[in-house]
Amino acid sequence: MDLVRGYYRALNHADLDAIGELYDPDCIVEHVWVDGRDVIEGCAGVRARYVQDFTQFTGALAAGHRVDVTRVAGIETGWGWVRSEWVRAVESLADGSHRYAVGYSHFWIERGRIRRHRSIATEIASLTFAAARPESERRYPSRPLVGVGGVAFSDDGRVLLVKRRHEPLAHQWSLPGGMLELGETLEAAVAREMLEETGLVVTPGAVVEVFDRILLDDTGRVRYHFVLIDYLCTVRGGTLAASSDVEAAEFVDPGLLADYRVAEKAKDVIARAIEMRLAGAR
């Protein structure tokens, strides 16, 4: 899996030499590039096809990256397969148009090299494409649910808040975040939720705090039980905009949190994140 992560680092930096070193000389690569349904055999041909792709498109994510990877995991086949899931954004160097896709890739790793690599991509209109988890899936759970949150700041030190549309905390201001999905890493969940709720692309950094939130109904039955993990995040790009499951998203002066009626626990988390940020944590 580390080899696959290395591949995406090389791809995002358009590092042809590093990419070439990752493939087996007799590799087979299928449907990996932005345009075309190419199937190419052999490392030399694969490298030449990457040259073509890099001269046609550049990355449209922050820092010129092409993809954000949401998951890398092994496949229990016994044949060394690894699966990745990703979001891609590129800009055409010919006309400046943007293209977006979500997809997954399978890698067959043999003797420390990529022997086979194939991808499936679905074109999408924009990166803010996911819907909120239904409220019914969160109420009266059979076990605690894992949630993630992001504490992000503007360049002038304002903290990012969202006004919730749904319970719990409906119509209240809080930190952006949401639920961990099955098979998703915590960091990928933070990045996804921040993008979905605020339109911003972030890189999750250090963990600020881990805590639980348990809410009971009038009969004493557990209506909500979340284990929440908040991350200090760095904004890398995107455009601030409230999504369908939040009413508003704003950067707020931390000195004005009382005006937004932010919960005491969220205030504590923000204060801790400010300390970490001033200390140089990322």
Task: Give a verbal description of the structure.
The protein is of the alpha+beta class. The protein has two domains: 123 residues, Roll (Nuclear Transport Factor 2, Chain: A); 144 residues, Nucleoside Triphosphate Pyrophosphohydrolase (Alpha-Beta Complex), CATH 3.90.79.10. The strands form three sheets. Strands 1, 2, 3, 4, 5, 6 and 7 form a seven-stranded mixed sheet that branches. Strands 11-8-13-12 form a four-stranded mixed sheet, sandwiched between helices. The longest helix has 15 residues. It is elongated.
What is the share of helical residues? 10-25%
By DSSP (H or I, 4+ residues per run), the number of helices equals 5
What best-fitting shape do the alpha-carbon axes yield? elongated
* CATH architectural type of the largest domain: Alpha-Beta Complex
Query: How would you sum up the major sheet?
Result: 7 strands, mixed
The assigned structural class equals alpha+beta
| Euclidean distance between termini CA atoms | 24 Å
CATH superfamily of the largest domain: Nucleoside Triphosphate Pyrophosphohydrolase
| Unreliable residue runs | 129-134
The total domain count is: 2
Strand content: 35-45%
Averaged pLDDT: 88
**Element-level helix/strand string:** HHEEHEEEEEEEEEHEEEH
Might you state the CATH topology name of the largest domain?
A: Nucleoside Triphosphate Pyrophosphohydrolase
- CATH class category label of the largest domain: Alpha Beta
Give the tally of β-strands.
14
User: What's the alpha carbon Rg, rounded to whole Å?
Assistant: 21 Å
